[in-house]
TrEMBL record:
One of its GO terms (molecular function) is acyltransferase activity, transferring groups other than amino-acyl groups. It comes from Thiocapsa imhoffii. The chain crosses the membrane at residues 12-36, 56-81, 102-122, 128-150, 157-177, 197-221, 233-250, 256-275, 287-305, 325-350. This is Acyltransferase 3 domain-containing protein. InterPro entries: Acyl_transf_3_dom, Acyltransferase_3. GO terms for biological process: polysaccharide biosynthetic process. PANTHER family: ACETYLTRANSFERASE (PTHR23028), ACYL_TRANSF_3 DOMAIN-CONTAINING PROTEIN (PTHR23028:SF53). It holds the Pfam family Acyl_transf_3.
Amino acid sequence: MQLRRWLRRPTAAGDFVPVIDGLRFVAIMAVILYHLNDYLVTKTGRRGESDWLSDLLAHGHIGVPLFFALSGFIISRPFLAGTVPRIGHYFARRLTRLEPPYLVNLLLIYTLLVLVLGMDALELFPHLVASALYIHHFVFGGASTINFVAWSLEVEFQFYVLAPLLLAALGLVGTLPRRLALASLVLLGGWAHQAPVVAHSFFGLTLLRYSGFFAAGILAADVFVNRWEQRPVLGLTGDSLTLLGVALLGSGLSGAAWAAGLMPAWVLLILLGSLRGRWSSRVLSVAPVYLIGGMCYTLYLYHFYVISAVGRLALPWMLASQPLWFNLVLMSLVVLPVVLLVGALLFILVERPFMVWRPGLRSRTETASAESQGTHCVER
């Protein structure tokens, strides 16, 4: 019970939605397994080998867009519920919640790159600064050379900056026009996500390409806050919606052109179905699932480096005579427990303290209000 208290994210009373943390679990596990698969096939020279499990895990990159949709849901929820935060507290909360753990991560990796890999400290320093300011892609035209997964944090930051303005504009119109506008953004964002003119250009690592997923999260939050939250009737219809969304998402990931251009719409179906489904919500609300999901930010920042460190020790034990799927299972059994253990320790020691740190808040009411404004995983 004490361990569960340490591992659970602090939230205001009544604000905790376990399904959302359950979806964070799905997203972070997809990303971890994606990188584990990539590490193994690269190090063993088996890239390109046809294997059902490796082919499945190679689609785990969809976990990042799912995180974006969850950010849209979480950030927009208080705005849509009518409890609009003061803009100063909104940005202070983003910075005090996310920046300190991120800086610790960047400084640690920077030190390891210099001391262990022998990289030039002065040459690397501008990349450290640009990464810390969430502008590495804008300055250097690519993902961070300190922590390459931080490209998604820069996309998140772009959304955080624009979200208050967008949500204020949406608040000026009625329910139907607002939802039609959001649905249009979901569809346009689906085009932007797969269009070569966006995906294969400078804009491929910016908010423009992933805007549809954030819009999907906002639309799901609008339905949840204004229709479902006070009438949480769960049923098999929601489960059917979840399964349909997963099937259509799989079609898009497998290369079906008609489905690939609607990826944010399929994520929207999964969000709505998970919130409304009897069985999907039950599975996502199991304690180990939502607890791991709540640690997704720390897991996201550190998982690849743990995979690399532990994988280096595990590689000699892989069996070249066995199918790739067998070695993936074997590697997962060795690496995943260490990833989760290291992630849990760093979550407790580094990330969680900043979840309860409320600089400048003078009352319990203000603190509760700030707690309700948590971010995605990023708070991933």
